[in-house]
Design a protein that fits this description.
cytoplasm; binds magnesium ion; Rossmann fold; EC 2.7.1.71; shikimate kinase activity; binds adenosine-5'-triphosphate; 6-stranded parallel sheet; disordered N terminus; binds (3R,4S,5R)-3,4,5-trihydroxycyclohex-1-ENE-1-carboxylic acid; alpha/beta; single chain
Length: 218
């Protein structure tokens, strides 16, 4: 059994009121990863956390820990609205207390409150990285099996439909846009680490290579 707080591990949800990561007031994630299913958020979060010597956290894992069941079971037994409620709470809690790499569930950005929190985090200098991927590259990664309840039925069409609806949101909230098509997860993590700049690159003075600066909405 690995140490849950070791660098690169994915931490789960904590009991309300606990502070096992010893977060100081004002603490925020080093980076938040957003993107559709199969974009590599969970995978890259672990690799990037290793790279930065911090802890990775995944709101999907947090929701499952809180509910005591898998996301698929939450969808079937409690419905998507209940899942989204648990997800909204998990995201808010993680944004408030996690100081490592934070991977969000693919649809977390659809919630208006979450959008506000992410916009404020980005405006305050936080990094929201949108892991972009095309259907062609997402398909073999996701495998389109039953563990992703929203992709049941016609997985390819469902994925593309989700992505079409969400792309504007991902792009609006992102402060960093990383295309992952044909890019191995480790290289995706490396690109993000490079974009985070000197604070994530001890001993260097490299200018952050932000590929897609924040776009302010009117
Ligand atoms: N850049 C990449 N290139 C090739 N395969 C990748 C890449 N990123 C992730 N994968 C693979 O794709 C699969 C899905 O990745 P992962 O679970 O990290 O995606 P996700 O964005 O977290 O999806 P979800 O939104 O469903 O949680 C994994 O098998 C992973 O190894
Ligand atoms: O894209 C989505 O809406 C989802 C993605 C997964 O990360 C899970 O959060 C869940 O399966 C829903
Ligand atoms: Mg994931």
């Amino acid at each position: 059994m690995s140490d849950p707080d070791a660098p690169g591990t994915t931490s789960g949800a904590r009991a309300p009121g606990t502070t096992s990561d010893a977060h100081a007031p004002g603490t925020r994630p080093a980076v938040v990863l957003v993107g559709p299913p199969g974009s590599g958020k969970s995978t890259v979060a672990r690799l990037l956390a290793d790279r930065l010597s911090v802890v990775a956290r995944d709101t999907d894992t947090d929701v499952e820990a809180t509910a005591g069941k898998t996301i698929s079971d939450i969808f079937v037994e409690d419905g998507e609205p209940r899942f989204r409620e648990l997800e909204r709470e998990a995201v808010a809690q993680a944004l408030a207390e996690h100081d490592g790499v934070l991977a969000l569930g693919g649809g977390a950005v659809l919630d208006a409150g979450t959008q506000q929190l992410l916009a404020a985090y980005g405006a305050a200098g936080g990094t929201v990285a949108f892991l972009d991927v095309s259907l062609t590259h997402a398909a073999p990664r996701v495998g389109f099996n039953t563990s992703r309840p929203l992709l049941l039925g016609n997985p390819r069409a469902q994925w593309q439909s989700l992505m079409n609806a969400r792309r504007p949101v991902y792009e609006r909230l992102a402060t960093l846009h990383v295309s992952t098509d044909g890019v191995p997860p480790r290289d995706v993590a490396e690109r993000i680490a490079g974009a985070l700049g000197p604070s994530a690159e001890p001993g260097t003075t490299t200018t952050p290579a932000v590929e897609n600066p924040v776009q302010e909405d009117a």
